[in-house]
């Protein structure tokens, strides 16, 4: 599969598994899993066709590890970032003292006034390092990295979860836990 087709297929996979399974008539179970055979057949009917081998290649080589198969490769799901209601079965975990949130310069004033909201997603996404947060922020404009006092949040009883691909998740980050990197 050439890189352009792989990128297009990966975006389609994200769109369907995270946001709009109904686009192709796909059923996600309560934990976000879809039947792989059903996904391939229904995506082929919608002209986004690909083989199991191509799907496996995307799952294995995606730099952000957005997708995962179950043990016998009969089901697939997105690791996080859903706007559809599912339960990823994540267990609370203790985060590092600080985590980072990358955003565009245009969002900073609102965040420093209102905190970081999950909006249409199930969680706020945080990164373990500044480099990853910078890449996230760059997708939306000039990046700004916000340092989140996650140890303090955790001590205040706010739960954190770690997705299978290493993204830290929480429900909301209050302004008092945010500082802007210079």
UniProtKB/TrEMBL annotation:
- What is the scientific name of the source organism? Chryseobacterium caseinilyticum
| Upper taxonomic lineage | Bacteria, Pseudomonadati, Bacteroidota, Flavobacteriia, Flavobacteriales
List the SUPFAM superfamilies. ADP-ribosylation (SSF56399)
Keywords (alphabetical) are: NAD, Transferase
Q: What task does this protein carry out?
A: Removes the 2'-phosphate from RNA via an intermediate in which the phosphate is ADP-ribosylated by NAD followed by a presumed transesterification to release the RNA and generate ADP-ribose 1''-2''-cyclic phosphate (APPR>P). May function as an ADP-ribosylase.
User: Which Pfam families does the record match to this protein?
Assistant: PTS_2-RNA
What is the protein's given name? Probable RNA 2'-phosphotransferase
InterPro entries (UniProt xref): Ptrans_KptA/Tpt1, RNA_2'-PTrans_C, RNA_2'-PTrans_KptA, RNA_2'-PTrans_N
Q: Does the keyword Protein biosynthesis apply?
A: no
Q: Which family does it belong to?
A: Belongs to the KptA/TPT1 family.
Domain of life, per lineage: Bacteria
EC no. given is 2.7.1.-
Q: Keyword Transferase, does the record have it?
A: yes
Under HAMAP family, the record lists: KptA
């Amino acid at each position: 599969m050439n890189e352009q087709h792989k990128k297009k297929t990966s975006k389609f996979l994200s769109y369907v598994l995270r946001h709009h399974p109904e686009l192709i008539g796909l059923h996600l179970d309560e934990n976000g899993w879809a039947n792989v055979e059903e996904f391939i057949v229904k995506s082929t009917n919608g002209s986004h066709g690909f083989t199991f081998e191509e799907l496996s290649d995307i799952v294995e080589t995606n730099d952000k590890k957005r997708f995962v198969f179950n043990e016998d490769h009969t089901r697939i799901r997105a690791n996080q970032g859903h706007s559809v209601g599912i339960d990823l079965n994540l267990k609370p975990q203790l985060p590092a003292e600080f985590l980072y949130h990358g955003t565009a310069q245009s969002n900073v004033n609102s965040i420093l006034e209102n905190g970081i909201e999950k909006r249409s997603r199930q969680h706020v996404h945080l990164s373990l390092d500044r480099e990853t947060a910078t890449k996230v922020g760059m997708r939306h404009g000039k990046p700004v990295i916000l340092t989140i006092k996650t140890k303090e949040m955790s001590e205040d009883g706010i739960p954190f979860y770690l997705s299978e691909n290493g993204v830290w998740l929480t429900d909301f980050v209050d302004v008092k836990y945010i500082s802007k990197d210079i």
